[in-house]
Specification:
elongated, mainly alpha, molecular adaptor activity, Serine Threonine Protein Phosphatase 5, Tetratricopeptide repeat, 6 helices, transmembrane, Fis1_TPR_C, Fis1_cytosol, TPR repeat, single chain
């Protein structure tokens, strides 16, 4: 019997679009209005809004909120695993993203959103690997050219 997927998660591509200032302010106002007894959903909404920001600091704050929700609310743990993985992905912390994503997939292997994120993660790691190889190759060529140039100058000065 195939396990049916039940979690409702944002598509991983949602991380690519930046939250509007108006939407962020609306969520932040709701969060502030509920002080000191903030509902779990409002805290979650703020975390998601922060992660969709273009500010690394905001993304880190959102990640921290998701981790707090994960710790304090067992009923939202699977959902939080996904958003923690997505947050790490946005921060380009791919190993951490993979770790949380694997935790989620071990509990919910049929999650379409998690499987999409897994593919995006693979593509990002592959792309970074290629970029890394190009950078290293460029550095090797530069060093070789510099050594060649220095050797030529050194040996050309030695001749009588």
């Amino acid at each position: 019997m195939t396990e049916k997927h039940t979690l409702r998660l944002a598509d991983p591509s949602a991380i690519d679009s930046i939250i509007s200032v108006d939407e962020f302010l609306q969520i932040k106002e709701q969060y502030d209005a509920e002080q000191p007894l903030i509902t779990l959903q409002t805290k979650f909404n703020l975390a998601w809004a922060l992660v969709r920001s273009d500010s690394t600091q905001h993304v880190q704050q959102g990640l921290s909120l998701f981790c707090s929700i994960y710790k304090d609310s067992p009923e939202r743990r699977l959902e939080c695993l996904y958003y923690i993985a997505l947050s790490h992905y946005k921060l380009k912390q791919y190993e951490e993203s993979r770790r949380y994503l694997n935790m989620l997939l071990s509990k919910d292997p049929n999650s379409p959103e998690a499987l999409k994120l897994k593919n995006r993660l693979y593509d990002a790691v592959t792309k970074e690997g290629y970029i890394g190889m190009v950078v290293v190759a460029g550095a090797v060529v530069s060093v070789a050219a510099l050594v060649g140039w220095a050797s030529k100058r050194l040996f050309s000065k030695r001749r009588p």
